[in-house]
Target: methionyl-tRNA formyltransferase
Amino acid sequence: MALSVLRSRLVFVKSLHLRPSCRRQYTHGIASESPFKVLFMGRDEFSCLVLKELHSAQDVWDQLVIATQPDQRVGRRGSQLSISPLKILGESLGFPVHTIPHTKADFCHWKPPSPFSYEYPSPPSNHLVVTASFGRILPSPLLDLFQSQRRLNVHPSLLPVYRGPAPIQHTIMNGDAETGVCIIQMLKREEGIDAGGVYGSSKLAIQEDADFATLRNKLGIEGGKLLVSVLRDMIAGRASLADQPSSHSASHAHIITSRDSVIDFESMTAEVIVRRHRAFSHQRPLVAHLETGKSIQLHDLAVHPLFASEYLLFAPGAARYDEQAGSLLIRCADDTVLSVSRVKQEGKALVNAKDWWNGVKGLGLVDVDQIQLVGSNDSEH
Model:
């Protein structure tokens, strides 16, 4: 979808999203004497969208340097080279692009490019570091090269909700009706991750069928616009910093792991499973297992409108192919039904549900026109 279309669909209300009892605000009246020299650190498409908005606002910066993750070999036996999308975008815009070391240990000693690595008596007020979906915690020596109010992070949630590395995924998984983006002050690790004061936030309504890419794109564009607004306030000396609400209202958005992708048909409804599919199937396909122990990935999921009992699917995980629906129907918790259009069995290619069903029938795995799927593979434990 073109960025101009995404911009036209953004529905947001700028707000600090802080409880009245926690609205302590501090005005940072230190104006920058000139537009900022920005060290911009990120990697993925979210950071690219933020950078595009920043690039367009050339009144807030006079130098922009990019730091990103190095190229990595991925896939089976390192058969594919994964290149940072931010690196590709930065080079296309003509910015200098630098890569950090591969290991976290080496990154702790990494020196940023000039002019940020010079030894000044004190950090210049027009030097600024911005992170957006960077994927690494900045070490203290790096943060010390910048004034405390010149260390910014663009975070895609309404903090303190969903601190951590996967806020967009958890927002969708939990079926939230709204989300947002914050520009916050980066603190040192020992002071708290994603716990810094808020310079500004914007709320965003979530469409019912929103998936990760759709929501990421909207939040990235809005995050970039909000960042530009905050930088203009900083240059004018009118930026204000407000405390986040108390940690009692905070929640953590842990990184998505293989454990999150395993379906438990007894405890998860079809709606819960589909939300997980929309949240992180771009990273990890959802997985179930045959009773033989073989895993199967489930692709192209939807909630089927009828109840499982109407299809004589008597136990959670019971599945059968339905000609009318053109998909595999699986009973889930609360008598709900999951529709699956494509399947990839362990060691085999991705195929449509009908072809897979005919294959397992030929192997004698179907009993009374049903096959039983389970969540975890007990042999793995």
Summary: The longest helix spans residues 212-236. The two ends are 43 Å apart (CA to CA). The first strand starts at residue 12 and ends at 14. Residues 173 and 296 are 21 Å apart (CA to CA).
